[in-house]
């Protein structure tokens, strides 16, 4: 296969490395927006900024320049940019005939749309989907065992992702439920901020377990209201991704919560990361979609109040604990 990965951040680079190391000997091109960055990566055979010390497989080529021309000659295009850049990328790829999948997880900040809804607006003819699940870039790049989900209503997209990435180190499951997979990917980032806050305040394992469990219930309620399948949230892109992002030390969103618990401002926390933490940018849009649908999401509401400076860390915890008793249900 000819595979083009657009975006040379940590995640795009990791998946390009995984595809290039595949037993099928794929021809993989990693596209970088910055020509100097592309030249440096091609010469040094690594991404020193995001994945330092990890050598590129021989089959990985790095390029810049005409993105649409690269995509036109591909069998699969993977968009590895943050959610904020997805609309522009899809507009430029609108005439692409190859299957396209994005990696970003979140809701578009201005419109509150999920990625597939953005695609339906700007490039409805694309054969598109999402590649998601519990996965840290560092571990994928070093071929540690990982399982992910290729979600699309189109079998051609699902099959292309399986053919490109499924192997001994990366197991790929197919799903038609693109709504559920995208909701899981977006909401788990917000819940990871809450769990990081919980751990930073040293509230204990009981509190962490309660947050993850009740957070999963909130995620499921929103997903069902948007038309997702309930079983999706018990799978890799729901429970799996939530557990990883809420508890893993490589999680950027969890790190935001830890820093807020230390007393850092949101600006200080985000600046210290050096990477995008999607939960910060999609939290408000998650709440907006939930309110419009009449879906109750108290944990996510508290995270937004915390990010907006309306609550301090301890006050957010107190607000959740002081809620009226109720029956456990999803």
Summarize the structure.
The protein is 52% helix and 12% strand. It has helices at 10-20, 35-44, 67-72, 83-92, 115-122, 137-141, 155-165, 178-200, 205-225, 236-247, 252-261, 266-273, 278-293, 298-307, 313-321; strands spanning 2-6, 27-31, 60-63, 76-79, 100-102, 128-132, 146-151, 170-175.
Describe the structure.
The chain has 330 residues and is an alpha/beta fold. Helix content is 52%, strand content 12%. It is built from 15 helices and eight strands. Strands 3-2-1-4-5-6-7-8 form an eight-stranded mixed sheet, with helices on both faces. The N and C termini lie far apart (43 Å). Pathway: Membrane lipid metabolism; glycerophospholipid metabolism. NADPH binds at residues 11, 33, 50, 105, 137, 252, 276, 278. It catalyses: sn-glycerol 3-phosphate + NAD(+) = dihydroxyacetone phosphate + NADH + H(+); sn-glycerol 3-phosphate + NADP(+) = dihydroxyacetone phosphate + NADPH + H(+). NAD(+) binds at residues 7-12, 137, 252.
């Amino acid at each position: 296969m000819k595979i083009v990965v657009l975006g040379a951040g940590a995640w795009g680079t990791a998946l390009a490395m995984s595809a290039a190391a595949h037993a099928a000997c794929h021809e993989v091109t990693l596209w970088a927006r910055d020509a100097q960055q592309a030249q440096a990566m091609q010469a040094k055979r690594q991404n020193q900024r995001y994945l330092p010390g990890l050598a590129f497989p021989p089959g990985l080529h790095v390029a810049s320049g005409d993105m649409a021309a690269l995509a036109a000659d591909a069998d699969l295009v993977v968009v590895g940019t943050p959610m904020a850049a997805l609309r522009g990328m899809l507009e430029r790829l609108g005439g692409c005939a190859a299957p396209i999948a994005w990696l970003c997880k979140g809701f578009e900040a201005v419109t509150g749309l999920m990625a597939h809804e953005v695609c339906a607006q700007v490039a409805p003819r694309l054969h598109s989907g999402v590649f998601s699940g519990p996965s840290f870039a560092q571990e994928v790049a070093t071929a540690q065992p990982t399982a992910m989900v290729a979600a699309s209503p189109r079998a051609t997209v699902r099959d292309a992702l399986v053919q490109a990435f499924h192997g001994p180190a990366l197991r790929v499951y197919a799903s038609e439920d693109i709504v559920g997979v995208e909701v899981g990917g977006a909401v788990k980032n917000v819940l990871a901020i809450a769990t990081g806050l919980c751990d930073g305040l040293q509230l204990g394992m009981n509190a962490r377990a309660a947050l993850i469990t009740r957070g999963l219930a909130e995620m499921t309620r929103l997903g069902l209201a948007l038309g997702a399948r309930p079983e999706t949230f018990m799978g890799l892109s729901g429970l799996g991704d939530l557990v990883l992002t809420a508890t893993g030390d490589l999680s950027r969103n969890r790190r935001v919560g830890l820093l807020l618990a230390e007393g850092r401002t949101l600006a200080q926390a985000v600046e210290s990361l050096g990477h995008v933490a999607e939960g910060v940018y999609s939290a408000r849009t998650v709440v907006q979609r939930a309110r419009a649908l009449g879906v109750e999401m108290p944990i996510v509401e508290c995270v937004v109040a915390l990010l907006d400076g309306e609550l301090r860390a301890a006050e957010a915890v107190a607000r959740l604990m002081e809620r009226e008793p109720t029956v456990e249900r999803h």
